[in-house]
Amino acid sequence: MPRPILATVHPQALRHNLARLRACAPDARVWAVVKANAYGHGIERVFDALRGADGFALLDLDEAQRLRALDWRGPILLLEGVFEPRDLELCSRLRLWHTVHCTEQIDWLAAHKTQQPQRVFLKLNSGMNRLGFAPAAFRNAWARLNALPQVEEIALMTHFSDADGARGVAHQVAAFEAASAGLPGERSLCNSAAILRHAQLPLHGGDGPTTLAADWVRAGIALYGAAPDHPQHRATDWGLLPALSLASRLIGVQQLQPGETVGYGSTFCTSVPMRIGLVACGYADGYPRHAPTGTPVLVGGVRTRVLGRVSMDMLAVDLAPLDAAGLACGVGTEVLLWGRSPCGALLPVDEVAHAAGTIAYQLLCAIAPRVPFASC
User: Fold this and answer.
1) What are phi and psi of 285, to 5 degrees?
2) Residue 40 region, left (φ>0) first, then alpha (ψ -120 to 50), else beta?
3) Which of 39, 113, 264, 287 is catalytic?
4) pLDDT bucket at 314, cuts 50 / 70 / 90
């Protein structure tokens, strides 16, 4: 029998989440963001559920090739653009759209020999200060691209730093409006948080859509059922469903007396008699090693907590809530680390991540190759 840990992708949840995000921006087209191997879910595993999107956005040429191998013939956008001149050859062959965020990428395009002009997304650094042209350089970059025969069409984009927080997006919207005023081309501003929180705010300066939803929205973490602004909102507040469940089983039980400790470093010490369960899941499976005592977990559908330090291959859980309720549990009992259990009980990945001092993105992307996957 294989080790009992299993990650399960839920295609119907993906379809539901895509529809939910469309409803927030009904007049925009949707990029389904599948970077980082679809946020750890697997591009091939999510493709059928997300092929209702208008396009796929990602980072790596390898991931783009995998989508074309799945017979996706629609748009694919490279969110960071190309990394060296020869990448443009593959963009031509695979018909990829790509982001332009620096002068070097314009230089490479100018030297690229192609008979088929390419579509590009010109990126503005509106305040996040990662990739993109500064507002003062944006129009010159547009003019250079517009003069190139290698470029068919120029769309305009930016990325929000605080769409999930109190600062909001107004300062970046103002920068985008000023830099892009009067320029033709489709526009893309909204990530998951902005789709849910800000998509219907006004947008000025273009000749197309007049809300932040604009022409394209970029749906990322929300597609996979996590709240981009947790803990202010839970996924259920936004009507999102978990698209991946990580589950295992109890592989051992210990009866402890007061004063006994659990795990490496003896970081948890019992004060009363208690039973603990040992779960076939550890940091080598992608579960966060820094998850402290108290991190939520479901055993047999009952909410309880992690105890002590997470090991490479195991973690310990408190069985007291089940014993107090008179519920039988032992070796073989199902343990839900996050997601949805077969009985319908939910444990949002956001809650687990928050308890571990991180975010859902990291947990989903960190599931280790040794963990088997299924679809249900």
Assistant:
1) -95, -5
2) left
3) 264
4) very high
Q: What's the gap between Cα 266 and its chain centre?
A: 35
pLDDT the model gives residue 105 = 98
For this structure, is 113 an active site residue?
no
Is the model's pLDDT at 203 over the cut of 90? Answer: yes
Backbone angles phi, psi at 140, to 5 degrees: -65, -40
d(CA 123, CA 260): 58
Residue 26 scores a pLDDT above 90: yes
| Residue 224 appears among annotated catalytic residues | no
* Structure token digits, residue 151: 């470029």
* pTM: predicted TM-score of the whole model, two decimal places: 0.96
**Number of H-type helices and E-type strands within the chain:** 12, 19
pLDDT in tens, 327-365: 999 999 999 999 998 888 999 999 999 999 999 999 999
Instruction: Give yes or no for residue 6 having a pLDDT over 80.
Output: yes
Structure tokens at 154: 């120029």
d(CA 59, CA 100): 13
State the DSSP H helix or E strand holding residue 12, giving kind and residue range, or none if neither.
helix 11-24
Summarised one tens digit per residue, pLDDT across range 116-168 is 899 999 999 999 999 999 999 999 999 999 999 999 999 999 999 999 999 99
d(CA 285, CA 246): 10
**Model pLDDT for residues 360-371, shown as the tens digit of each residue:** 999 999 999 999
Please tell me which residue in 35, 123, 224, 283 is annotated as part of the active site.
Answer: 35
Rg (CA), the chain: 24
Helix, strand, coil percent values for the chain (each to nearest 5): 30, 25, 45
Q: Which residues contact 324 (CB under 8 A, 6 or more apart)?
A: none
Domains of the chain are 11-226 (3.20.20.10), 244-375 (2.40.37.10)
Rounded CA separation 198/25 (Å): 10
Q: How far apart, in whole angstroms, are the C-alpha atoms of residue 336 and residue 22?
A: 30
Supply the pLDDT for residue 17: 98
Q: CB neighbours of 335 closer than 8 A, spacing ≥ 6? A: 247, 248, 249, 250, 277, 279, 281, 297, 298, 299, 317
